[in-house]
UniProtKB/TrEMBL annotation, chains A, B:
Annotated organism of origin: Aquimarina muelleri
HTH tetR-type domain sequence ranges: 4-64
Gene Ontology molecular function terms on file: DNA binding
Keywords of the record: DNA-binding
Listed InterPro entries: Homeodomain-like_sf (IPR009057), HTH-type_Tx_Regulator (IPR050624), HTH_TetR (IPR001647), KstR2_TetR_C (IPR041490), Tet_transcr_reg_TetR-rel_C_sf (IPR036271)
DNA-binding region: 27-46
Protein name per the record: HTH tetR-type domain-containing protein
Length: 191, 191
DNA sequence: GTCTATAATTCGATAGAC
DNA sequence: GTCTATCGAATTATAGAC
């Protein structure tokens, strides 16, 4: 059986609280209350509120960059690469939905220099996706379209997915979700 | 010529500031500084910081509901209705990008009872879109697919667009954007 | 309407005993 | 590691003179 230490519980519950109320809205007192101890105890686990946010964001951010880089290093075609990106994105989101939610909604609350570090990484990530799409259009695997808008559309199709794995509702099968999203991105809603 | 009163300037600059830094992060001092007067003066124009957020959100929210309802009352087919929704959504976003950004990112900062009022309206809006999609699948205009995921995908394809009209870059032609987004939603990226 | 001054509260973080 | 107590800073909002 998996042991849940008090420290693990702290990071787990803090993450959920930040997702629920937003980073700025959550107070150290909120966190302490949820864990049923005093605010001062929080500083046994983390140096500051900012450090907590940085920890969550750069952890999940690293995983996304890492998995993207592995896909890009392969010899798959652009279309196959995009499908792999969709697949790993959904798998990762299903595994860590709360961190993914923070990645989407809370990165603005980082402070310099971490904020710049993060946004630079974000740009790099998006440009890599953009390059795959551009290559796919060039090679005739995708239809001709505005590359920038295609990139935004592609990314926005994946960005909301955490919502299916936070809430208390029954979680959708990631493989079924992958099929649905993949079909939407490649063939759209029309017949 | 259009007259810009100090009051108009206040609402305009406050809106941009809230978009840039986030509602919780913006202080009354920030707003006063941007407008080059003292924090106390803000209360000549608005009762509280919360009231400011409510004003922006319910203003743009009403416009979206109103235009959606007009489209739904028409005798157009589901596919034509979705195209009109895309069209009016982009037009409205191009006209009021900063309020649209708040609609997407800041509604969580509403307090009860306004928060519930807002989220109920959001649900109603999304369910109406969902019904159009369901009808379109039923009538065979759209391919068979998971209705809930289709609805999320459709909405997420429109949600990021404010980003093209805030920033300082050259604004994209709304009609061109409409064509690109519409093609993505109905035919996807594939050939 | 604009200012100075400040009330009232809240928050992140620390000190220090046990 | 957990507590009590509290500091120091920041914030919304108000009072009241001009």
């Amino acid at each position: 059986m998996k042991q849940t230490t008090k420290k693990e519980k702290f990071f787990e519950e803090s993450l959920k609280l930040i997702h629920e109320k937003g980073f700025k809205a959550v107070t150290m007192r909120d966190i302490a209350q949820r864990l049923d101890f005093e605010p001062a105890n929080i500083y046994n686990y983390i140096d500051s509120k900012q450090a907590l946010l940085e920890l969550y964001l750069f952890d999940i951010s690293y995983e996304f960059h890492d998995s993207l880089n592995n896909i890009l290093k392969s010899s798959y075609s652009p279309e196959e690469k995009l499908k792999l990106i969709i697949s790993t994105h959904i798998q990762l989101t299903a595994k860590k939905p709360y961190k993914m939610a923070l990645l989407v909604n809370e990165w603005r609350n980082l402070k310099e220099p971490k904020l710049t570090e993060f946004t630079e990484g974000k740009k790099v990530y998006e440009n890599k996706i953009r390059d795959v799409i551009a290559k796919g259009i060039e090679e005739g695997q995708f239809r001709s379209m505005d590359i920038e808008i295609a990139t935004y559309s592609f990314l926005s199709s994946l960005r909301w997915i955490y919502d299916k794995y936070t809430g208390s509702e029954s979680k959708i099968n990631p493989f079924e979700l992958e099929k649905q999203i993949s079909d939407f991105i490649f063939t759209g809603m029309g017949k």
